[in-house]
Amino acid sequence: MPNIRLPQLPWHSPRELELPLPDDWQVEVCHMAGFDRPALKPEEIRASISNPIGLPPIRELARGRREVVILFDDLTRVTRVAKLLPFVLQELAEAGISDEQVRLVAALGCHGAMNRLDLAKKLGQSILTRFPVYNHNPFDNCVYVGTTRMGTKLFINQEVMSCDLKIGIGSIVPHPVTGFGGGGKMILPGVSSIETTEAFHRLEARVREEYPDSSVIGMGKFDHNPLRREVGEAAKLASLDMKIDCLLNEWGEPTSIFARALESAYAAGVQRAKEHYLTPQMEIGM
């Protein structure tokens, strides 16, 4: 009897699920190219975060700043933020930033709020005792920061906008709308108001009408994707200073880290992601 083994439960003691299949099934597993690449060691994570490309190190970028916000994705994304965050905090401490100057905001978009257990899994228990941690609320406490060239009015979390250093931690993975996730999606829709998020999705519908063949929008379609450009423009208007994005293996462990100025980090990460997540298509015969 053929079996198939699937990774599962990334936030609940990751393990494999083995499923028995009928004897007369022909089974082929289509792994993405980077499924078994080794996870980065702590010293490799430190080196990537401490030496960003196209930006001064965080310890220099943070000098003289008054308030720092660190944005992170929620449990629908498998980014192991707890493995990256200590190195960001160490850089901030070396810049003379005290714990009282730092807060963390879950860039939920319009997803449900995270509870304390969720946050402990994402950030580590010790972080919750050191820093204020907030869920983004798309229905309140958002301020206008500008309008994109495609006409989206951006209302962004006021707590985020009150800070003069903004750092995001997330992952680059294939996405059915913007081609790939990560990058400026930490801002739009991550910490945007419900009205801004609705406007962005209306824009998606408009682009799909203009390109009914889906030639510019869809999974892995990045280079000419107007929605990807919209997200990048939103991040600039909100002054996202730095983005730390990971590529992930089959178990959600980081195998590469791109810590750079937003646009250069994201573009470089996506080019690598196109190879890393490449998965063969199987022809199904009858």
What is the fold named in CATH at topology level? Rossmann fold
Backbone CA Rg: 20 Å
Q: Whole-Å distance between the termini?
A: 21 Å
Give the H and E element order.
EEHHEHEHHEEEHEEEHHEEH
Quote the average pLDDT.
Answer: 94
Give the total of domains: 1
* CATH architectural category: 3-Layer(aba) Sandwich
Summarize the biggest pleated sheet.
6 strands, mixed
Report the sheet-strand fraction: 15-25%
Q: Please mark out the parts with pLDDT under 50 across 5 or more consecutive residues, or reply none.
A: none
CATH class: Alpha Beta
Could you give the order of strands across the largest sheet?
5-4-3-8-11-12
| Shape annotation | globular
Total beta strands: 12
At the fourth CATH level, what is the homologous superfamily? LarA, N-terminal domain
Q: Give the % helix.
A: 25-40%
Total helix count? Answer: 9
Structural class: alpha/beta
